[in-house]
Amino acid sequence: MPKSYRPYTPSRRHMTTATFDEITKTTPEKSLLEPLRKHGGRNNRGRITTRHRGGGHRRAYRIVDFKRDRRGVTADVLAIEYDPNRSARLALLQYPDGQKRYILAPQGLTAGARVGAGPEAELTPGNALPLSAIPLGTMIHNIELAEGHGGQMVRSAGGAAQLMAKEGEHAHIKLPSGEVRMVRLACYATIGQVGNVEHETLSLGKAGRTRWLGRRPIVRGLAMNPVDHPHGGGEGKSGQGNPHPVSPWGQPAKGFKTRARSKPSNRWIVKRRGKA
Fold it and tell me: Is 94 a domain residue?
């Protein structure tokens, strides 16, 4: 259960934080850190290409092993660590030759456990296997889209996909969104559900915590002037007008499908999310 507080201020009343009970080591592994520059949502020309970004606490990037390319070798889980760059926790592994790596920590993985990767690995949380070696119905995460590219799907806290079927050279995987997608059987996935499941129940409670995450305030278009937004202007609360609602550049904002009809990956989607 998330930690709640005595409401001695209005913001404290609804604020909840993670308990961090699973964290066993508070200092990151120096050999697995990289500098992480802030860009404030700006591109290489200094133009804002992603709005509402900026500020936030200083972070170092943790190098995470999404490829799990040390096959047939088991590693010891030294610790479960916090990662400021993602909602999931990290597990610090040490291989017999002394090499250390981070992986996403699945639910149930604790310090002292052993994990491995390869077709012969056991079906226990944290082990990575090709989809061809995983039984139907298994919950998986960190799924590759192409062999050797590393896991790209289902990596956030509490995420889990389900292996639904195998047909020819492809597996049918039901993603957390409800979408069913085909992935080649040679692609690797990790057994189990991503840990830190309580993350989605947390309430930030105050605007300051949002700023710590590097998110700047978002102003409603309705509150702007006509020069700044199609919804702007008018005397008092005048509504959005017609056509509505739209983005600052006039793109319909609610219910308008923006996915390209000719997108190459369409052929791999068996069932769209949200479809009965």
Answer: yes
